[in-house]
Amino acid sequence: MENFRQSPIWFRFLNKVWKGTYPLGTEIRLDKDDLFRRARKVTGLQDMGRDFNVEPLERLLKSANEEANLHPIGRFITRERFVSLLSIRLRAEYFFKKYPQILQQELYPAWIIVGLQRTGTTKLQRLLAEDPEHRVVPSWEVINPVPIDLQLYERRFAVGPSHHFASVYPDRNDKRIAIANTSVKALKFMSPGFFAIHPINAMQPEEDILMLDVSFMSTTPEAMMHVPSYAGWLESADQSEAYAYMAKLLKFMQWINPAKRWVLKTPHHLEFPGLIEKHFGEVHFLWPHRNLHESVPSFLSMVTYNRMIFSDRVDVRQVADHWVRKIGYMLDQAIDYRLHGANTNKFTDIFYKNLLTDSAAEMGKIYQLNGGLTPLLAERFRLHELEHPHQKHGVHQYSLADFGLTETEINRNTANYTQFISKQYGRSQT
After folding, report:
1. Which fold has domain 9-425?
2. Pick from 24, 52, 307, 361: most CB atoms within 10 A?
3. For residue range 269-284, what is the model confidence (pLDDT) as tens digits?
4. 394/392 Cα distance (integer angstroms)
5. What is the C-alpha separation between 142 and 71, in angstroms, rounded?
6. Measuring CA to CA, which residue among 359, 354, 351 is closest to residue 382?
7. Averaged confidence pLDDT in the chain
8. Domain ranges of the chain
9. Which residue(s) pair with 286 in the sheet?
């Protein structure tokens, strides 16, 4: 696999030189109190909110410091990212206090894309984003859900949500877009092969898991770093508070830019459909499916690229062991929820191969939920696909052998899912 086990030369050189200066005191600190000081200094704000729980951050920091083997650049990125997450929380609390009507809203109905990684979830979300009635979260906004310039959108909060604002959102002076564009460029430099796996565009929708990160309770860290103690704790923890706060952020964003329906997406949600329903209200789950022998190694290669941005000691077999088990667990959680009571009616299944070869039919299935697919929308979807063809950014090459995996190992961890698909559709793989 091209670039699979090798970071760019400049990246390795910079890490080596920086690490050589550690005796001079240049090692980045990952310290809770330091992070809080930095966030409060950057924002000029103090209040994290009554519902902020510091335990997830403490556990994540301990795991990152003791287990992740972060190289110097990895430590720098991690510190800046954690400061940014705390800053988002500070800015959000500023608005929630000043404009309590934000949290008095009802959340819009939502279509939640919950498929595993590498099953067509990004393609599906970006198609649905072409519907003008939908509210999605573009990359620039999910990185920073709350404006950095607190006064930039104050007038909107004073008068309340209005569709009149949608045509001028985001404001041309919004710093968040420039930050997102810089992040995209940096990722291209640090991991050139990543975009063949998951193309990122500052203006295109991205996974809303980053809003769970504001509570430091998501699977993002274990996709970026080797943090087994944090990951183990997280799996057993009650994540209600993270979903409750994500709902608050969604209310903020729909106030500033209204629509009719949310379209959200992240594989993380497979593990928690019950929490989504509890905190989001009226939801319908869109579940893309793909042959696991294809999607799993594709995702494992993505995780490996991610982790190499943070560490020069990435064990691909450890990545495989962790995530193959985790994927089976996530699927089991989703199936248990789906088979309970009338929950099966809350799901629409989408198939990866069909999405690639006949997306109109798959979109038609979804729009049966909303009166049918109109010719105008069908044309919007067709034009989007012409502008964003499959493999536009290169061919992503991967195999089970890259990770020392066999189909038997995947089958053993995902037996319940395979049986479920077989029973529903008369086939063992999708």
Report:
1. Rossmann fold (3.40.50)
2. 307
3. 999 999 999 999 999 9
4. 6
5. 26
6. 359
7. 91
8. 9-425
9. 113, 348
